[in-house]
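Why do we care about 3D structure at all? Because function follows from shape, and shape follows, mostly, from sequence. That is the central idea of this module. The next example makes it concrete: a single protein chain, its amino acid sequence, and then its structure expressed as tokens.
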Amino acid sequence: MRIELHGYAGDCTFDGSAELPDGRLSDVLNRLERLELSEAVLTSLETGRAVSAGEVPVERGDLVAVHADGPAGEAERRIYMVRHVMRVLAGPYVIFGEFHTLPGIHAVRAFHGSRRGLAPLTGCRVAYAQAGTLKVVQTPFLLVNLRHVDEVSPSSLDAALDEIELWAASLEQPAGALSVVA
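And the structure:
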């Protein structure tokens, strides 16, 4: 199955597609060590310059986070979970999203204790600086590579929006320069 992917690495963001086996994206990517990206476009965080790179191998270890276009996982596999809004610092990205746990489970410990390489978040905002401009991407689903997580803490949507506004102000952008991508 061909899937459109959008990812975040230490020095760039990327878009492209990959032929992946059927199954939940988190399970599939956790099994793969390398992802073969087609029609890849890499965009530098430092300069904002986008480069069409064609076919690009992406090592799972190089991914900070990734999300895909398309349907969510199988509804029949879902169970009742408690949603915890989390703030995750991963490389050059500040990520706000909901981490799901069973009732009574401590969210931060569960996030760090995940046995998987990629931890799922829902209802996400990914904030980062690109060529001195704040970018904020909203996505319903994001997989975060635990290898790149520097800090994780409980948060709230209000705190997320406040932090993003403060970050935008610190970059001294002209009014209206905040770039939000849906």
